[in-house]
Amino acid sequence: MPNHVSLPDSLESLRIMGLPPAAYYISDFITSDEEQMILDRIASAPKPRWKQLTHRRLQTWPSDLVNNKLIDAPLPAWLEEPIVSRLTSLRLGPASESSNIFGHSPHLKPNHVLINEYPAGVGIMPHKDGAAYHPVVCTVSLGASICLDIHKTKDDGTLDQAPAWRILQEPRSLLITTSDLYTGYLHGIADITEDVELSDDTVANWTLLRSGASFQEGRNVRQTRTSLTYRDVMNVSKLGSKLGMFRKK
Ligand SMILES: O=C(O)CCC(=O)C(=O)O
Ligand SMILES: [Fe+2]
Q1: Which long-range contacts (CB under 8 A, 24 or more apart) does 9-12 make?
Q2: Residue 150 sits in which domain range?
Q3: 242 alpha carbon to ligand 1 midpoint, in Å?
Q4: pLDDT tens digits, residue range 113-171?
Q5: Is the pTM of this model over 0.90?
Q6: How many structural domains does the chain have?
Q7: ipTM > 0.95?
Q8: Test site for ligand 1: of 189, 225, 230, most ligand atoms within 8 A of the Cβ
Q9: CATH number, domain at 159?
């Protein structure tokens, strides 16, 4: 297992073809050591950090949004490095003047991380991420592989239950979804214990996988998979720091 990563000069070669614009997949974005370090930090977070839903749990860093607003606060060091500097080093095109993926976002880098833990058999309902975030979403997967389903809406506005595309996310990978794919479609994860019929024909990012061959008979038996979703919350309130100032007086 390599203990370093080599990132491409441009994301263009890692674009997931056949999807609406645009999504990119990097199979080896962090090392196994980095993956384990982050999983350890997540596991050692104080219990009140977890928000327990019916079937899964999550953490939000630096905090929950209130009315789509983030109270200004830094991310903890273990979520900032090495991931954020790697994310902001990724360029969309080959030219040196080409923008990095957060080059048009309000804070020029992600300021918020959602940590979702999915036990086998548990997913997330198809949804859109909504208006709070700049439309660039970076998802780092930890622990195990899982399929993300992309859904269309039907002409009457209701959800098309059958996914239009599937993206397979391996542990230590990065998936970037932007623009139309972010705003015009829904994404979700099925509540199943096994992803099946995985192949070049059914998985949009098959040729970009670390190891398509490891999914024997096209199957991925689900294990606990944790994701880090990095986004830039557009509206940031300085309220927290102002309160801090008042307290000092
Ligand atoms: O865990 C994932 O890959 C998706 C999470 C997600 O869609 C969300 O939290 O909005
Ligand atoms: Fe989402």
Answers
A1: 9/91, 9/94, 10/91, 10/92, 10/93, 10/94, 10/98, 11/90, 11/91, 11/92, 11/101, 11/176, 12/92, 12/93, 12/94
A2: 11-248
A3: 32
A4: 999 999 999 999 999 998 999 999 999 999 999 999 999 998 898 999 999 999 999 99
A5: yes
A6: 1
A7: yes
A8: 189
A9: 2.60.120.590
